Every structure is written in structure tokens, then in C-alpha cells.
Amino acid sequence: MSGKSVTKVWARNRRRNWMSALLASCVLVTAAAPWCSTPARAEADSVIKPNTPTSQRIPDFVSLVKQVKPAVVSITSMIRADAVEGDGGGMGGMPFPFPFPFQMMPQPSHQTIEARGSGFLISADGYVVTNNHVVKGATKVTVILDDGTTLPAKVVGRDGKTDLALLKVTTSEKLPFIELGESDDVQPGEWVIAVGNPYGLGGTVTAGIVSARGRDINEGPYDNFIQVDAPINRGNSGGPLFTQDGKVVGVNTAILSPSGGGSIGIGFAIPSDTVRNVVEQLRKTGHVVRGYLGVNAQVISPVMARALGLPAPATPGAQPIGALVASVSPGSPAEKVGLKSEDVITDFNGQKVSNPHDLAVRVASIAPGKQATIGYLRGGKAQTATVTIGDLKTASSDGSSGSNADVARGQRLGIALAPLSRDVRQQLGLSADVRGVVVSDVDPGSPADQAGIRPGDVIQAIGSQAVDSPRAVVASVKAALAAKKPVLLRVMRDNQSLFIAISPDGGNNAPPSDDGGDDDDN
């Protein structure tokens, strides 16, 4: 190597050494000499450094799957074609094919459709949890155990509001079962596995993480889903979602699929805390009873918050917290404890209330007759009240409770009615000139359910008689029944009118079979 080359190398090294010394001195004197700081150094103090072990690896689920898989079952339902058509195939244009992933198989007969889903055993004596939409309208339900054993199943009860159903199979042997865990303990980022019957393949295992909690996908009044990225496909409906302790924290129910196809990594499961409450009631009585408070609440906008003198959110630009009481139903539990319009409910039974949906979910989970504490703001001042929760099913359309409840539900037709308030019109996308009464609830298995009436339908006329209040509907229904005729309803659904005839004895529909029909006694 020439001297010239050596010199150049040495000069470069000397410059490097000089720079290294300067940087080293900066480390020692940065606090006293700000000129030594660099952007990287300045930003280092704000860098988030997760406390994650470097040796952490993806978990092995082999042992877990061996333990839980024997309790997961496949379900085949023979469903009336009219019950499937009544579901509309979607959610008003939303990209959720809900009820989703159950698989329909074509049949030679046009009377029934074979649907396949999943479920899981929760007791040794044969109780099985699945989705309501897997067995709704079924004339026959069959459960296939993990070992291939096929058993006829009876529908103990269904709950359309949470999309849950409880089945019962009978066998001389004790069956393997799994326990419900605590969904409130589940955290985003936690590993979960789904087991089910996608596309009729039988026990299939997929894994992923919890993506989010408390998702409201606008499917029902009590949406509170766990979002997961574990692949869920057609046939997974009703199957369990496990955490690594082998307990069920969710029931797989729906997916987001803009194309209507398979999984894109956005799935939804009903939390086990909801499942536990619903299943216990279905097991005891065959139906679900929900708490009732009697307030019409709405979301608080920033402008409303300022007008009401509410404290500013801790985070600038954040949505104000709480449920603004727009009105209180006469005779309701809320009225009895003195709640008023413009009150802002912030807590319910020790749990924060972020919005009206939170409030609805929490109230519904309390058994009628039990007491609950309500925290609220009135004129900017915090107050509390202790309320005795009412029964949603026996609350009449005007909010009162008592002997009018049975009449308000349509003389055993199985429908609950409510007036078309401003908020209801907004939710249903109805213009101010639409007249009628909205169906707020339909009893599973009732004549109205069998005829295809759905929550959200707007009854505009009974026969040729226009109706614009729940009491008018009740009066017209009574007149039709007195004449011993089916009740003919003109209904608006998705901004289109249609006629639906309801026979009080359900004689216009095929009766369920003994081994899997709808046995609700609501």
C-alpha cells in the first residue's frame, strides 16, 4: 500500500477517533452543556420501552386443544325456509353478514334448509350452548359429538337479543364439558383460540389475539362483543373462544366481511359474562328476564356538555362521558326515585357509564326486583339514588307497569310496542311523515315470531285501520281476535311496506318437532 493511501486511512481514522471522543464527552456533560444534545438523545426520554422478555415465544396450544376439544360439538338444524328468508341476509347494508357464520346447505325440498353451526357442552348431563341464529326456526336439531356420536337435541330456550340458545341432549353416559371464564379479565393482545365446525369440516382450531373489547356493531341493544383476529368462518357460529387457561371467554358469533365471504381477521364473540347470565335463565325458565329503568337516554355532544355545565373531558377533544336523560317514563323505577330530564347518568351499580349503550347493557343485566345504585349529575352537582329495578317484559309501552302489560304485548301475539319517538326515527332512518308504532321486542317462539315480525318493524295499520300509538294497535288487535280472524298487519321494513298475517295459535306455520323445535314458553 502506498504512503499516500496510508495517510488517507490514518486521517479518516483520526477524524473518527476525534468524533468518538467528542460524542463520549457529550454523554458526560449533556446535562451541563445542552449544545451536546442530539435529536436522538432528546427523543430517547419519551420512547416507550415495553417490558417484554426477549425469550418470549408463540405459545403451544397442543395440550389445551386436547383438553377442550372433546366438549366442542357440531350442530345441524333443519330450518324453515321462511325463517331464513325473514332474516334478510344482512344488517341494513352494513358489512356484517349477521347472523353470520352458520352454513346453509341446499335441500331437495323447498320447505326446510339445513344449517350447520357449532356449540359446546357446559354440563355432564348434556346442556349445549350455541347461537340463536343457528337454531331459530328449526324443526329438527342434531348434535354431533367430537367422537362422531350423533344425538337429537331439544331447544331449551333462545334469546334473540343476545343471539344465544341453550340445547339439551340426552345420553346414558356423562359427557365432557367446559367452564365459562371471566370475560371482564380478558385484555387486548391476549392469545385466544377458536374451536368450531367451519364449512362442515368438524373440529377445527384457529388462534389469534383479542383485538378489542366492548364492540357495538349495531346488531342489538346489548352488543358488547369481544373482537378477535382468530379466523372465524361459516359454521363457526356458536363455537367457543378460549383463553390459555382452558375456559370459555366468548361465543363466536359474527365477522366483518365486506364481500360477504370468509374471514378477514375481524371476528366477534359474545362475552362469557353475558353468556353466563343468559344461559342460567334459559336453563331455569326457558326465557330471559331483563331489568328495566325507564329512561330514554342519548349521547352527549360537546356542545350539549357545555350547555349543561358538565366538567370538561380529561382529554381535550374526547367525547363527554355519561348518558343524558332525555325523558323519564311515567310510573317507571326511574321516576319513582326522582330522575329527571337533563340528568346525566355517570355510574350504575359502581360501574362507569360512558354512553346510553353502556347504561342499557348494565340495566338489562340486573334481575328485576333487585336494587341498584345510580350516580348522576344534576346542574353539575353529583348525586346518587338507589332504585329497585323493574321487569322489561312487564313494562308497557308508555313505561308504566301493571295489568296493561299483557294487552300491550298484543294479546299473546308476542310483540312489545313503542311509539315512534324522535330518537327511534333517527335509529330507523324514518322521515317525520312516517306514522305507526315500532315493534321493540318479539317473544321467541310466539305467533309474531313465527309469522316473521322483527324488532324494528313499524306497524302502520291493522287491516284497513291506520294506527299511530301502541294503544291503537292493542285495540285493533282485540277487535280482530274478537272476530276470530288472523291479524293482518301492514308493516314498514327497510322503508318498504309489506303485509304480514298473524294467527294467534300459530296455525299458519309448521309446528316444531319433538326433538328440536322451539320450546320457549314466553
UniProtKB/TrEMBL annotation:
Residue segments, region Disordered: 501-522
Reaction equation(s) it catalyzes: Acts on substrates that are at least partially unfolded. The cleavage site P1 residue is normally between a pair of hydrophobic residues, such as Val-|-Val
UniProt keyword list: Hydrolase, Periplasm, Protease, Repeat, Serine protease, Signal, Stress response
Residue span, PDZ domain: 308-355, 417-495
GO biological process, one term: proteolysis
Enzyme Commission number(s) from the entry: 3.4.21.107
Annotated active site: 133, 163, 237
Gene3D superfamilies xref list: 2.30.42.10, 2.40.10.120
GO MF terms, alphabetically ordered: serine-type endopeptidase activity
Region forming the signal peptide: 1-42
NCBIfam families found in the cross-reference section: degP_htrA_DO (TIGR02037)
Similarity annotation: Belongs to the peptidase S1C family.
Protein name as it appears in the record: Probable periplasmic serine endoprotease DegP-like
Organism: Acetobacter ascendens
Source lineage: Bacteria, Pseudomonadati, Pseudomonadota, Alphaproteobacteria, Acetobacterales
